[in-house]
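Thread: Newbie trying to understand structure tokens

Hi all, I'm a second-year student working on a class project, and my supervisor (Dr. K.) asked me to get a predicted structure for one chain before our next meeting. I've only ever worked with sequences, so writing a 3D structure as a token string is new to me. If someone could post the tokens and maybe explain what I'm looking at, I'd be very grateful. Here's the chain:
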Amino acid sequence: MSDLTPTAEADPARNAGGEPSAVRRFITRLSDWFTLQSPLLKTLVVLTLVLIPATGIYSWTLWQKQSVLSADVRAMAAAQPGSEALWALNDKLPVVFGTGSLLGFLESHPIERITVVYRPLLWNVSERLMLVESQGRQHAFYPSDMETKIFSDKAVTAAWGARLAFVPRGEVGPAGTAMLERLDERFANARPQGEKDGWKASMSALLSGALTLGLLGFLAVQLRSQFKSLKFTEPSQISGSIDDLVGMDDIKAEVAQIKDQYQRRADYAQYGIKRPFNVMFSGPAGTGKTRLASCLARELNLPILFHSAANLETGFVAGGSATLSRIVALAKRRQRCIVFLDEAQDLFMKRGGHRKFDDDTQNMLLAILDGVRTKSDAEIIWIVASNFNSESMQMDEAMLRRFQMKVDFRMPNKDERRAIIGHYLDQRASKVRGDLDLDHLVDLTEGRSPADIETIVNQAGISAAQAGTLIGTDTLMQAAERVLVGNVNSDTTQGRARDRHIIAVHEWGHFLVDLQQERERCGDDWAMLQRDVKTMKISLKANPRSNALGFVFHKQGSNLLKTKGDIEHEVRVLLGGMANEELFFGEQGTTNGAHNDITRVTRLLHHAVAEMGMYRKTRLNFGALSSGGQDKPVDEETRAIMEAQSERLYGETRTLLAQLKPLTEHLAGKLMQAGEMSLQDALREIRAFEAAAPAFDARFELAAASAPGMLRIQ
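---
Reply by user tm_fold:
Sure, no problem. This is what the structure looks like when written as tokens:
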């Protein structure tokens, strides 16, 4: 949803104070995410947070023990003069394969020295080789895990315990290394299972580490996704204020009332105003609903959470209600905040789905809007915004009762549009010409939102920057055409002379019927015609947006109330395209290009006859009898009246255009040559044609009495 236009930047002094640090914001968001999770996931996160430092501390402790052991061995060797050789691997003695039990051998043979060659593996797992010197030989043993434990326990009291030497395998010299390699080869199948499974321990440790990293990665992704979907925006992050917005004073007054009521809750309570702060914003897209909600949050110094109601559903049953529950949990934790649900029109529709869970999301929202009555939640403001159209949609009555305040957003009026255009041009004043004429642009943006106007001015700036010129009237009009009509091209219709001729005839039919009425009102005041005629340009360029081979660029009508004559004129203008096709190419030569025109004519006549009671003796709206949003078939009487009026209006239109056929042929030729013509070009060609053919006026003059409402060319 686009915003209303801010006229000033945020106050730097205001931003300077109260801006939370990055660490505080991260902690807050992490806490918000943790609040929303299931008990199982919370438990898993807590266990992970405990295990990670615990395993780290355990590993560090064992590493320290191994380091201390190695240091102690070196210290023992250095403490005895001349004993260095004692603690080195004795590779001078022959090495033989030890038979039987290591402990049995130690108890039954004289022992000169026991060398323990060790290689630390993982934590408490080490590879061990025992070399026992006895009677001029070194007897090699690979003890089992159990035998090693018994060996260690007996070494405390046994006589041979004082003859132990510990040699790290990594510090063995070349000769000793060769000896150990031969022993490894010889004892390959005799090594203890605990040592042979050392690779399993390594893989287990690696897997444990991978699982830990995977879990942390999962949590990181979850946090990132959570921050994007359910994240509060702090007041210090919002720029502008309600008073800084251009136009819409009536709407800003409504929002200011919400602010006043929130700030003076106790005063309002004395008058019996104790309802929860449930607010409904409704209106077309781009009219500033989101912007005003942001400004309200800044004015009240409240964090605000933005979420699209269209994204509530998760694809699972009750997914929408579950998402709302998470939002409520976040809001309750903040206590003072604003929750803004955008695009909520589907939530306002009448309930009654065929499946039980179809209405779960709406029921949950109703419960939430009622539940904020409790004391702990009294400071939560719920703003639900939508494009809900009360004329074409029927709102659920229970939902309607939940909102104490309703703010209806509208499109800006003429003065407001001019002010908005001026504001955006002031932002780039150094690149704007001083002789701008904004009248046409203001008229052209009738019915357009502030967001559309901003886009037009931005597009004009882009075009001017690319051309290296200042923004002028023509630049703005070209930008408006680009934004409102879309990209156009002449390549699609290039070489299609027949199609171009049909399009030209069709579009001039619309234009001339409309022009006739304006000439009756203005006479020959061509300056007034230039100002008041709605058509701005007729083009034979293709418009991919509407899948059309040509288009008419025109202003919106400014009349809020339409008379019967206005409706009939609009019908004639719409029928002018097909009528002209029939005049030039015969009934068999009419095309499907008039499909949209005929559809609009049908709707206009149905509105006039069935809903307004026009052309009837009674003034009744039979359309009001339809229920549940389902239109009933048109009754025979209404159909007959619509057909009769359509036939009459089409005949009048065809009669008028038949008399203007020479002018149409002239204009069609000029349009095919130029590719497109502005209103100014069209009026100039019409004046030149009439000046060159003075008999044209008399020959094709229409009698007002013969065709009421039709015009004469003067």
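A couple of things are worth pointing out once you decode it. The chain has four domains: 12-19+234-408, 80-196, 414-484, 497-699. The first strand starts at residue 95 and ends at 97. Feel free to ask follow-ups in this thread.
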